[in-house]
Hints:
Blueprint: H1 17-33, E1 37-38, E2 44-46, H2 47-54, H3 59-64, E3 67-69, E4 75-78, H4 83-92, E5 102-111, E6 123-132, H5 137-153, E7 159-165, H6 172-186, H7 192-197, H8 211-216, H9 229-244, E8 250-251, E9 263-271, E10 279-285, H10 289-292, E11 300-306, H11 307-311, E12 326-330, H12 333-348, E13 353-355, H13 362-371, E14 376-380, H14 382-387, E15 389-394, E16 399-404, H15 408-416
Parallel strand pairs: 1-5, 7-8, 12-13, 12-14
Antiparallel strand pairs: 2-4, 3-4, 5-6, 6-11, 7-9, 9-10, 10-11, 14-15, 15-16
Helix pairs in contact: 1-5, 5-9
Amino acid sequence: MNIQAIKGVKDILPGEIEVWQYIEDKAKNILETYGFSEIRVPIFEYTELFSRSIGETTDIVEKEMYTFEESAGKKITLRPEGTAPVVRAYIEHQLYNKSHITKLYYLGPMFRHERPQAGRYRQFYQIGAEALGIDSPVLDAEVLSMLDNIIKELDIQGLDLQINSLGCKDCRPGYREALKGFLKDKFPMLCENCQSRMERNPLRVLDCKSRTCKEAVANAPIIPDYLCGHCKEHFDKVKETLKTLKVSFSTNPRLVRGLDYYTKTTFELVSTNLGAQNTVAAGGRYDGLVEELGGPKTPGIGFAIGMERLASLIKKDKFRTNIPYIFIATIGDEAKGIVIPIIDGLRKKGIKVETDYEGLSLKSQMRKADKFQARYVLIIGEDEIKKGSVLLRDMEKKTQEEIDINNLTEVLAAKLMIPAK
Ligand code: HAM
């Protein structure tokens, strides 16, 4: 039997990769305009980094990490997300000494052993951004506005930015206790998973997709009622600044996240055009994480966009696919020899060229040119060589003209509107 890709992973083939490159280019441009610089961190780290930052009782750490035993009993894990590795690098390289604010972005694969379904993969890609060093609510709004700009630039409709505040280490324990008290009475209604995690991580119950859990938490206490003065003021200022920046949002007092490091502002960008896996991007503030991982007390905020989900929302007619521009058809051996340096010269000028390597008839070569969706075909035969000219066929207009072989590059560059090099 043929070997196939592992369940839950995805090949991104030519035809689709152009969509990804398009997203990456647009996103990089915007991130850099906002002062973010790229960071590349390894795809594996010591397991402890993730268990300490994401939280021992989260689904990711409890059951979704790809973990291997290294020699000497040290465990390593394929990164399930990018925030923890970026914060690890931030501390390790003392980036906090270089500037009062450090803005980093990353692109790359993440790995989670989840049940595969549409929009949920075991290897998936994220574009993430992290801003470390400042705890201003204006920065929160700015980060959200940047995400909003990326979405607008990509012309994606039907997204709802939902925001909430998860409070801080002072006010969240009070909420946790209130929620636990409420859930105790609902215990029989909860799914097995929630019954077992209710004590350890009651906030996760609010996010459970099971029908009975949803019913059970319908009237649960909500976190905004438990925020301390400081967190409430912070959240109000975030909302006010979002309005100033004309970023539309809705508040969702039940929004909780699957990672434990969050404090204060949290958010999800949810699509109305996707199925069950409808969160396209998500993130929030994590003011305790740097300290938790052994660095100085440093606030942080960030988000990650899920590439597969975002790419599925892009209108495919937005850009042309990767079409070779020119096909060179030759008649006879002499022509085949002559075109080798011509092709090389055109490519060096940035003109995409394909040709025939198999000695096909002119008719077959024209068929091949069609398959390549070539915009122009250059026909070079004995007669043309003698005259020092070539025939240029416009495949769209179905017209033909003779051009001087010495002006070939200039004529083609002008037709294809490629700037002269
Ligand atoms: P997350 O909510 O776990 O947050 O993931 C962010 C996004 O990655 C999701 O909204 C989704 O689009 C995508 N994603 C997650 N899991 C999968 C999967 N199995 N298959 C396909 N796409 C997936 C984080 O990862 C945080 N590190 C975000 C963050 C950055 N918070 C602060 N800074």
